[in-house]
Design goal:
By secondary structure, the chain is an alpha+beta fold. The chain has one domain (14-78). The chain has helices spanning 26-40, 82-86; strands at 14-19, 45-50, 53-57, 61-66, 69-74. The chain has a five-stranded antiparallel beta sheet with strand order 1-5-4-3-2, covered by helices on one side. The longest helix has 15 residues, at 26-40. It is elongated, with a radius of gyration of 16 Å.
């Protein structure tokens, strides 16, 4: 039987999820959030925009805004997640 250690795994995806109380104002302010994020990330595109979930994407990451949570997902990672952590 081959012994497996943590160093044998390769990280391919990192997700940072924030949870909060129901944010009903997100229905009114999603456009402002998208505009503000576009100033920081000019290549940002809106994948889908709906009252219950908006998904935005760059070449390297996606950002989902929902009523009770938001997520940042990255598939281009450095081994220590330094860049992923610095851009948050």
């Amino acid at each position: 039987m081959t012994k497996v250690s943590v160093s044998d795994f390769k990280m391919t995806l990192a997700v940072c999820e924030l949870r909060y109380e129901n944010a009903y104002l997100i229905y009114d302010r999603t456009g402002v959030v998208c505009s503000d994020l576009r100033k920081l990330f000019p290549s940002l595109t809106v994948v889908s925009a709906a009252p219950n979930q908006t998904i935005l994407r760059t070449e390297e990451e996606s950002f989902a805004i929902e009523l009770t949570q938001c997520r940042i997902t990255s598939q281009k990672l450095d081994s220590k997640l330094e860049l992923f952590c610095l851009t948050r």
